[in-house]
Amino acid sequence: GIRDWSVPGVQTCALPISAMLDFARPNGIGFSTVLSVGGVLDVDFGELLDALVEDADTDGILLYVEQVHDARRFLSALRSAARTKPVVLLKAGRSAESAPPRAPDPDSVFDAAMRRCGTVRVRTYTQLFAAARLLGTGRIPRGDRIAVVANGRGPAMLAADSARDAGIELARFEPSTVEALDAVLPEASARANPVDVRGDAPPARFAGAIGAVLADPNVDAVVALHVPRPVDSPTDAARAVAAVARSSPKPVLAAWLGAVERP
């Protein structure tokens, strides 16, 4: 359910909230509370964060921020919230900020503050929607060690490079995981992260490799990348991966590249 709270004495800018709700409904994502602070004349983010931390129905917090008026209170509340619940933030207005010569860039300072508070900062609405979808599953990774599984070396390496750029660690597989991969991968495939199941992989091999790395205690989440190949159906591959993902408490983030079959 959605409780829509209005804050007295402020003029509400509902565009970000409307966009999020329009995205959420068809994707089956619900919100315990939806709040707009508008011009922040009497209630600020700090007070709302304190309330949401105590709310038993709130499992994660998404923030759209334009200006921070009370930085000390805001950071204190963020730090407290992020200790117990995932907090994801999208900030607008970076182009309007400026700093004197030789002074630190305001956005870089804000970015560093978010990292210290344990808050995940996103840059686009698409990333915010993706975070909402992940939080909606209830499968929150316990750490930032990921495994990448793909049926093409190029996408696998690009994903690994992006993870490195973002400061996300590629998991090191346990010997038992290497043994499990031996049972499903062809001899030419490396038993290392990222995992390339090869372009001729049928759905069972693709899903089997994902199942093997999901069982590794060093893996907190799996990124699955599928490239369309004439030898297999992308829809069948998606069904096989979904069946494996359902049985694990860890999130599987999947991207099917290119056109997917349509009925």
Sum this structure up briefly.
With 263 residues, the chain is α/β, with parallel strands linked by helices.
Characteristic terms for this protein:
alpha/beta; elongated; 263 residues; 3-stranded parallel beta sheet; disordered N terminus; 5-stranded parallel beta sheet; 14% strand
Overview of this structure, please?
- The structure is a single chain.
- The protein is α/β, with parallel strands linked by helices.
- It has 9 helices and 10 strands.
- Strands 6, 7, 8, 9 and 10 form a 5-stranded parallel β-sheet that branches. Strands 3-4-5 form a 3-stranded parallel β-sheet, sandwiched between helices.
- Helix 2 (45-54) runs parallel beside helix 3 (71-84) and helix 3 (71-84) packs parallel to helix 4.
- The longest helix has 14 residues, at 71-84.
- It is elongated and about 65 Å long.
- It starts with a strand and ends in a 7-residue tail after the last strand.
